[in-house]
Amino acid sequence: MDIILKARNLTKYYQMGEIKVEALKGADFDIFAGEFVVVLGPSGSGKSTMLNLIGGMDVASSGEIYYRAKPLHGASEKVLTEYRRDVVGFVFQFYNLMPNLTAYENVMLSVEIAKNPLRAKDVLEQVGLAERADHFPVQLSGGEQQRVAIARAVAKNPEILLCDEPTGALDSSTGIQVLRVLKNFNEKYKKTVIVITHNASIARMADRVFYLKDGKLVRVESVANPVSPEELSW
């Protein structure tokens, strides 16, 4: 299988005065192109740290991480900036939309910097917001704002879509809509989607689940028969 991300003994610690806080402790993993991965664990387990390292937003304290055999550990800020721009799309729990731009204009922010973008109008249609394209964030519900944020990330046509608690601020029905958008992107475009969450039910729709506890990747499980978002119980 095509390995898109590879980590060996990946470690991240923070020095807080005389205290050394180990956020990620020697993680080993391979992530394959086109799979849907859920990283599951409670608060403080190291999920966001792993996402930051995968996304090139932070650098490891030790160990190795590769994108298609290209090292991200020890990479220059220029290399990491190009990686974030060209390879990775980000979806966060809090939508980070530009309040003075419409939904369409927010999506166009990604389109304008991408090498091989999708059409903004097409992506907004896919997330069910074609008729809301000219609305500002304040005129949209929380679920609609999250779908705009996803459309913005997807429009860049990234190889890897990283999602940090994308349903954390949403009710169950809206959360299912958001997960359906992510699953469609994974299946339609054959892109790698990685969802960081503490919601164990979301793991049922993954190809594989990474379990983190106290900064350690304690196990990785394949899901024999992934379910659709509509089949999840919240």
Write a concise keyword list for the protein shown above.
single chain; 234 residues; alpha/beta; 6-stranded mixed sheet; 10 strands
Descriptive overview:
This protein has 234 residues and is α/β, with parallel strands linked by helices. The protein has a domain at 97-158. It has six helices and ten strands; from the N terminus they run βββαββαβαααβαβββ. The strands form two sheets. A six-stranded mixed sheet has the order 6-7-8-3-9-10, with helices on both faces. Strands 2-1-4-5 form a four-stranded antiparallel sheet. The model has no long low-confidence stretch (mean pLDDT 93).
Structural class: alpha/beta
Q: Give the strand tally.
A: 10
Stretches with pLDDT under 50, minimum 5 residues? none
Form type: globular
Distance between the termini: 33 Å
